[in-house]
Structures are given as structure tokens and as C-alpha cells.
Amino acid sequence: MGDPIWTYLRRIQHYTGLSTDVQHREWIQVANYGIGGHYYPHYDGEDKENENKTDINHHIGQRIATVLTYLTDVKSGGATVFLHDRKHIQPSKGTAVFWYNYHRNGRLDYRTKHAACPVVMGTKWAANLWVREFGQEFRRKCSMNDSE
User: Fold this and answer.
1) For residue 126, what are the β-bridge partners?
2) In this structure, are residues 83 and 41 in contact, taking their beta carbons and an 8 Å threshold?
3) How many CB atoms lie within 10 A of CB 78?
4) pLDDT digits over 116-136, tens only?
5) Are 129 and 63 a contacting pair, CB within 8 Å?
6) What pTM, to 2 d.p., does this model score?
7) Strands (E), 8-147
8) Residue 8: which H helix or E strand, with range?
9) Dihedrals phi, psi of 6, to nearest 5 degrees
């Protein structure tokens, strides 16, 4: 049987068309939320007008896409909520949510503001994978159109 991390990364690459090679992504972050565990509303990307040019973004670009994988079911609570659309996703073991943090024109997609609701019963394990901008130029083409 193969390495499960390699299999996971290849699956993401297959479904998204983005490179998940180590130089084009961050390390996978695994998070555990116990009772009451939550995460405040935030964006995974930064407004490029205000980004800190001295940090990692200068070397590998912005977090253009997010893959959030649920590693457990949650008995109650723990949903991921997208505030703009008022959509919520209840964690289900083995499922994943994918979204782009930027429009093709390079502007932050303000519809991606999201939060993790408090866990009411049980525990929540999730894995985040952030795909970076550099190395994706021919995989997700940019646009000069303001509406893209």
C-alpha cells in the first residue's frame, strides 16, 4: 500500500488541476477542536494591496486555494460557515471542501470569509492544505477582466 499523504496530494492535484508539489504548497496542517473549539471568521488569502512583502508570500506567492478535509464526523456543531453566502458544511469523515481564495484577476475573493463553528458534542479533526500561487501559472490562468 502506498503512502497515504502522497495519495492524498495526488488526489487533490487530480481533482483541482493544481500542483501539490512541495514547492507549490504549504505543509498540511492538522487541527483538533474539542468541545467549544472554534475558529473566528477569516480569509485564507490576503488583500494584495496590504500584504506583507517580507513574509513567505514574497517567495511562493499567496494562498490561491484551500482544501479543507474532514478527518472525523462531529456529533454536534463544528460546521464550516461561509459568511457571505450563509452556507455551512457539516464535517463528514473523508469529505473535503475546495475553494479559490482569489479571482483569476488576482483580487481577493471576499466571498471566502469563513469560520469554524464551536464543537458542541464530540471532537473535530481536520486537515488544511493551502496551495500557493507560484508554480500554478499554467494550471490556473490569470485574467485581466475585472469580473473574473
Assistant:
1) 31, 70
2) yes
3) 26
4) 999 999 999 999 999 999 888
5) no
6) 0.89
7) 29-33, 39-42, 63-70, 76-77, 80-82, 87-89, 96-100, 114-116, 119-121, 124-132
8) helix 4-16
9) -60, -45
